[in-house]
Design a protein that fits this description.
By secondary structure, the chain is of the alpha+beta class. It has 15 helices and 12 strands. Strands 5-9-6-7-8 form a 5-stranded antiparallel β-sheet, with helices on one face. Helix 7 packs across helix 10 and helix 13 packs across helix 14. The radius of gyration is 27 Å and the shape is globular.
């Protein structure tokens, strides 16, 4: 998941100043006037004075498929902007039809796309880029120098627009905004397929990427296989080199220049060919039965809950609060929790005897539900004490554990 970009609000006399990261602030001119939309205490939105209609959200609540469905079925015209960390992608639509798309990702720029399609060599693209300047685009340089025909350029642009749109269906997180308004006519291209057909391909891509993510989770370790790299996959040789002594999928992803689907398909091909293989897990050391039983117990959710309890308590202690109020949850438990918390006390450092709770009840599920109730109470008590970003982090971790346990 990408790290969110943040702004801070600084009081200054009768007004406040909103400080943005330099990477964002560079998009605005000094002294530029922006329209401020205030959604109570929940959100502030800055829009250019000329912008009117908009709607915005997060991919955690509205998927790409749902978002395009809303825009296309409503026959809307405007610009759809998606940001994920420092990456930014835009899609322009006219009357519900895709007419253009751009991306800040290096591998989704026109030059790289033409190299992949073998329309140009890297040297030709590099030479053309050196001639690009304000008011003169890469496509104009390529056609004026006759490195490519206008028809071939138009076709390549259409293919790139489609690929950028399809890549949006690979995203699991990020923020989006739809800004209503007609797109500039000189940017429009006519795709070779209907927008509805492109979106159906996007939905299929989302399913494919989801399947491959399950096959290659981020922490799965891969190692160089016994078979040579197959012909035609020579460009993937750097992945083989990185995995020579074994490495996690997430580390390989960081070194791969390309989209999520391209990366996962590459791994799938390499593993299927035997050029990469899953690293065998090391056998655990033999431990005493008591230790083994404890680890087995904690691994089924209780360990994660225990860690989260200690984390919450550490945040409270760091904020100058003691744990007396939290400890009262066990001395005077809620109805129905008397049995799980019989004889339980919260340690001064936030430690919780989850093994004792487990021994008080019939099964691990009941123990987890009891601890879950305490954590919900602890987060509620702490929300006005600890920093908001820490509170959200802890709440997110609780949701993750709850989802894992079903």
């Amino acid at each position: 998941m990408s790290a969110p970009l943040r702004a801070s609000v600084q009081p200054s006399g009768e007004t406040v100043a909103i400080e943005l990261p330099r990477s964002l602030a560079s998009a605005y001119r000094a002294g530029e006037s922006l329209r401020l939309i205030v959604h109570g205490a929940d959100a502030l939105l800055l829009l250019r004075e000329s912008q009117q209609g908009y709607f915005a959200g997060d991919l955690s609540s509205v998927s790409i498929g749902e978002l395009f469905g809303l825009v296309v079925s409503g026959v809307r015209s405007g610009k759809l902007v998606l940001t994920r960390g420092a990456a930014r992608k835009t899609v322009r639509l006219v009357d519900g039809e895709i007419v253009f798309a751009t991306s800040t990702e290096p591998y989704e720029r026109l030059g790289r796309s033409m190299i992949r399609q073998k329309l140009l060599t890297p040297e030709q693209v590099e030479e053309a880029l050196a001639q690009v300047k304000q008011g003169l685009r890469l496509g104009q340089v390529l056609t004026s120098s006759r490195l490519i025909t206008p028809a071939a350029l138009y076709s390549a642009m259409g293919g790139l627009v489609k690929e950028i749109v399809l890549s949006l269906f690979e995203l699991e997180d990020g923020q989006w905004m739809f800004l209503e308004g007609l797109a500039p006519a000189d940017d429009a291209v006519k795709l070779s397929e209907r927008t509805q057909d492109v979106l159906l391909q996007g939905m299929r891509r989302a399913e494919e990427v989801s399947r491959l993510r399950k096959k290659f989770p981020p922490m799965r370790r891969l190692v160089q296989g016994q078979r040579p790299l197959p012909a035609g996959l020579e460009e993937l040789a750097p992945l083989i080199t990185l995995a020579e002594r074994g490495t996690e999928v997430v580390s390989l992803r960081a070194e791969f220049e390309g989209g999520e689907r391209a990366f996962l398909v590459a791994l799938d091909q390499l593993v299927a060919s035997g050029a990469l293989a899953e690293e065998e897990a090391k056998k655990p050391a033999v431990e005493p039965q008591e230790r083994a039983t404890k680890e087995e117990l904690l691994s089924s959710g209780l360990k994660a809950y225990s860690t989260l309890v200690r984390d919450i308590c550490e945040q409270l202690l760091a904020a100058g609060r003691n744990l007396t109020d939290l400890g009262s949850f066990f001395t005077d438990p809620l109805p129905g929790l008397e049995r799980p918390f019989q004889g339980i006390e919260l340690g001064e450092d936030g430690s919780l005897d989850v093994l004792r709770i487990r021994s008080n009840v019939e099964n691990e599920r009941e123990a987890c539900e009891a601890i879950d109730a305490f954590i919900s109470y602890a987060l509620f008590s702490a929300k006005n004490v600890i920093p908001p970003e820490q509170g959200e982090r802890l709440a997110t971790e609780l949701r993750r554990i709850q989802k894992a346990l079903g």
